[in-house]
Amino acid sequence: MIDARSLAQEIRDAHAHKQSVTTPTSREGGLDLATAYATEAELVRLRAEDGHRPVGLKVGFANKAMWRALKLETLVWAHLYDDTVRHAGNNEATVPIAKMYAPKIEPEIVFKLKSAVPEGADAAAVLGAVEWIALGFEIIDSVYPDWKFTPIDFVASYGLHAGLIIGTPLTVTPDNTALLVEQLAAFAVTLQKNGETVAQGSGKNSLKSPALCLAELSAATAKANARLAAGDLISSGTLTEAQLLSAGDSYTAMVDGLSVAPLTARIV
Question: Residue 3: inside a domain, yes or no?
Fold first, then answer.
């Protein structure tokens, strides 16, 4: 059986030295999801030793159609950190990738909570617990060769999280909640690279709505005694296919049907 503390150190070192590692699930004895989350907790502890604290969670595998094939009962998650999350001034940000192994970019909807999400919440009740929503870019990085891994491997490696860029927030109020419920389930997103469209998606790609994805995350974390709380930032899963990054490229996400401004990331 793989030891969570040893695996966390291995994953941490692989990222620090830009080295690949064999997926834990393919090793002798394999890795189960409980040990993967124990590894994720060890990574949180190691980051705390370096002076960095978790500020929320990110979602992975927010596609219910995939769960049966992947033997999942729910989505998976990992932590965001105070040094990996930043707000984009004027909806533009520079993303340094020199220290990353094989980075990709994903457009996502980001939530900031003002209270815990009620158990069994529908989309409207979820938004009642949300201070604001925003368009974001998550930067992900995999030290697993060729980006091949299982959800269990995902959890054991920071959930692939390397950074989160947050665009201008849209405040959630009682007056706009009903409209946002409709829009989050229906909006479309276009991702452009250097001015050319490379991917398209919609809110439906995140469990039919990012708000419903947040509800599912709340239920999943509650079962693991890791409940969501006021102040948490939540990155709710990719809306398009992730794109591999190279220095010199520029990515812009544009949304139709939701009042969030386009967001641009310049890769250096």
Answer: no
